[in-house]
Amino acid sequence: MQAAPLICILPGNEALGLGIASACGGEPCRPEIHRFPDGEQRLCLSASVAGRDAVLVCSLEQPDAKMATLHFAASLLRELGARRILLTAPYLPYLRQDRAFASGQGIQARHYASWLSGLIDGLVTLDPHLHRIRSLSQIYTVPCVALSAAPAIAAHLRPRLTRPLLIGPDRESAQWLQPLAQQLGVPCAVLGKKRLGDRQVQIDLGELPPPDAGLQPVLVDDIAASGATLLEGLRLLRARGYPPALCVVVHALCDEALDSALREAGATQLLSCNGVAHPSNAIDVRPLLAQATASLLGTAPAPQASLPCPLCGKPVGFSSALEGSGLVCPHCARRLVLERQWPGHSGEMRWALVESGDEDEP
Length: 362
Known about the structure:
There is one protein chain. This protein is of the alpha/beta class and 362 residues long. It folds into 3 domains: 6-148 and 286-297, Rossmann fold (3-Layer(aba) Sandwich); 150-283, Rossmann fold, CATH 3.40.50; 304-353. 24% of the residues lie in helices and 29% in strands. It is built from 8 helices and 21 strands. The protein has helices at 14-24, 67-79, 108-117, 150-157, 174-184, 228-240, 257-265, 286-297; strands at 6-9, 27-29, 32-35, 41-44, 53-57, 84-89, 122-126, 144-147, 164-168, 188-190, 192-197, 200-204, 216-224, 245-252, 267-273, 281-283, 304-308, 315-319, 326-328, 335-340, 349-353. The protein has a 6-stranded parallel β-sheet with strand order 2-1-5-6-7-8, with helices on both faces. It has a 6-stranded parallel β-sheet with strand order 10-9-13-14-15-16, with helices on both faces. It has a 3-stranded antiparallel β-sheet with strand order 19-20-21, with no helix packed on it. β20 and β21 (349-353) form a beta hairpin. The protein is globular and about 65 Å long. This is Ribose-phosphate pyrophosphokinase. GO terms for molecular function: kinase activity; magnesium ion binding; ribose phosphate diphosphokinase activity. Keywords: Kinase, Nucleotide biosynthesis, Transferase. It comes from Solimonas aquatica.
């Protein structure tokens, strides 16, 4: 009988790690991390590892500060004989750097994916910031499950808003905005954005309708880092005559000072998902992440089926847990990505051909 999976919880991820352990019947453990006076670290695991599946639990905001610990933890699990190593990382970094924007630069999304793929055997993450890279399978060489926070956000907003108008700050946000609007059955609009620098953006009203009595504007984006996009969006909404807006993000990577700045700019509140710890956390995505991790481990049922390859027409097996991920067709060797025919709904799924992304600004 195979031993229960080992859930290796890195610092700051205790609640998510314990939820994953409960979902998959795993044994939670926390590596002991000793810091030497010169800044180096030494990890030690007291749990038995040999022959067991292991799950590393670590959200990767502020990634540079976590890379060494993550690398050593994965390497230690491998050295101690782990059968398979998965990583559950609610936030996956470096995806915004998906092209070389100037001479002398590289595509750091690929560099990071190459490094991380060499450490692990599978990945679970939440709403990765995909733009020119359409699917994680284009840059990661391990199975990836890219979850959507839309169901959790919809469940949180539904009883709290009567006539919301969901607003995305740029066309890139449509991939998060539209599924959420469909699940709530409410209208949405997308603004236009041009990024001028790390903390400066230019936004136009795009397709935004005129304000209507009773409409509750809700600004929705995947990431709040500097907060420049939300602040500029709020400024435009107020100038257009809209009432104060609610701001909702999946990953709050900003400091606490942004909350007061948003309120001064015309926000009622900032709400975020709890994959990344932040004072604005209000939307619980931990059960979603835990269940997906259990499914990837094979300790929770995942329906199996096959769908035709859009190129050769032959059947290609899939699991619904792999939505947003991809593989190579075993018949024609074309790379495919699994997607829903109607994003945001529980309807039919299909294989789509992976194509190159566009070359717009980040």
